[in-house]
Write a structure and sequence with these properties.
By secondary structure, the protein is mainly beta. It folds into two domains: about 300 residues, Coagulation Factor XIII, Chain A, domain 1, CATH 2.70.50; about 45 residues, no CATH class. Helices cover about 5% and strands about 30% of the residues. The chain has a seven-stranded mixed β-sheet. A six-stranded mixed β-sheet has the order 3-11-10-5-6-12. The longest helix is centred in the first third of the chain and has 8 residues. It is globular, with a radius of gyration of 19 Å. This is AA9 family lytic polysaccharide monooxygenase. It is an enzyme of class 1 (oxidoreductase). It catalyses: [(1->4)-beta-D-glucosyl]n+m + reduced acceptor + O2 = 4-dehydro-beta-D-glucosyl-[(1->4)-beta-D-glucosyl]n-1 + [(1->4)-beta-D-glucosyl]m + acceptor + H2O. Belongs to the polysaccharide monooxygenase AA9 family.
Length: about 350
């Protein structure tokens, strides 16, 4: 384990806590990277999320802040597709429904421009990130306080971020991150959970904020990284660079899902609110795993809207896959060591039973 991935991955295997399963833009859900199946196939589906062999839902430790692992997670590779979003619209990031209540900390969102060639082939070590959202300690009246992650848990394990309205159109990586501070009173005890997604932003904005390299975002001794949250905190400094002046502060909310989106592949010319593209769209269509509604599947290359199902049969569902809910006709048994857990009347999920 050490010889392949190094100490950061070994540490992450000890305590595993979650990842983003899908993102939602204007009611359309785009699949994330499925750590339960995609790392084990030679030809994973085209998705908008960056891939990682991090099958243990692990974290990036502070001793890896100066390595490429901190950029988009452990050994992350470029997403092969992207989603289109207008500047001023909001993106809802749906996490697995198992974030521990004890793992308090900030949630931070960044953007980094990829250039005309797009984000599918960009060198992640050249990306320069600017902060568009940063929420830390919400209420410090009681110890350890109410944090951004508590808001995420309260909103069905999801987080909403607005794409600033004045951002120039183009191809961007959205870097979304939870930082867990339950062990941050000791240097090296902080846990970072970065996730990256490819976006094509449309609109008429002109702002191109300066950013910093991913390997320069944090230091192990930053005041928002090395901090004891079990003492009364009068203030808390959200880690990372200064918030972009055009960032928009929003009230957290959930996002209903009305359709399942197909990632766009290739690049196109981005103009005032429209996209002219010569690229093809992915032919892979998947059923979203949502925690809100039973969803339809809609492709960008067809005028028809169809509903798909995994179908019945005796096959066991993979960990983190759907295993029940209203109108569900797919597998209801989970592959070991997972068990089917009801999230709500519409959705049940196979969650690992091993601590």
């Amino acid at each position: 384990m050490y010889s392949i991935f190094g100490p950061a991955l070994f540490a992450s295997l000890v305590a595993a806590h979650g990842h983003v399963t899908n993102i939602v833009i204007n009611g359309v859900s785009f699949d994330g990277w499925d750590i339960g199946s995609y790392p084990y196939t030679d030809s994973p589906p085209v998705v908008v999320a960056w891939g990682t062999p991090n099958t243990a839902n692990g974290f990036v430790a502070p001793d890896a802040y100066d390595t490429s692992d901190i950029i988009c997670h452990l050994n992350a590779t470029n997403a092969k597709g992207h989603a289109v979003v207008a500047a001023g619209d909001r993106v809802f990031l749906q996490w697995t429904p198992d974030w521990p209540e004890s793992h308090h900390g900030p949630i931070i969102d960044y953007l980094a421009g990829c250039g005309a060639s797009g984000c599918e082939t960009v060198d992640k070590t050249t990306l320069e990130f600017f902060k568009i959202s940063g929420v830390g300690l919400v209420d410090g009246t009681d110890v350890p306080g109410i944090w951004a992650d508590d808001q995420l848990i309260a909103h069905e394990s999801g987080w909403m971020v607005e794409i600033p309205p004045d951002i120039a159109p183009g191809h961007y990586v959205l870097r979304h991150e939870i930082i867990a501070l339950h062990g941050a009173g000791t240097e090296g005890g902080t846990q970072n959970y970065p996730q990256c997604f490819n976006l094509q932003i449309t609109g008429s904005g002109s702002d191109k904020p300066a950013g910093v390299l991913g390997t320069d975002l944090y230091s192990p001794t930053d005041p928002g990284i090395l901090v004891n949250i079990y003492t009364s905190l009068l203030t808390y400094i959200v880690p990372g660079p200064t918030l972009y002046s055009g960032a928009v502060s929003i009230t957290q909310a959930t996002s209903a899902i009305t359709a399942s989106g197909t990632p766009v592949t290739g690049t196109g010319a981005v103009t005032d609110g429209t996209t002219t593209t010569t690229a093809t769209t992915s032919k892979i269509t998947t059923t979203t795993t949502t925690t809100t509604l039973v969803t339809a599947t809609k492709t960008t290359s067809s005028k028809a809207t169809t509903t798909t199902s995994l179908g019945g049969g005796g096959a066991a569902q993979t960990p983190y896959g759907q295993c029940g809910g209203a109108s569900w006709t797919g597998p209801t048994a989970c592959a070991s060591p997972a068990a089917c857990s009801s999230v709500n009347q519409w959705y049940s999920q196979c969650l690992p039973t091993v601590a």
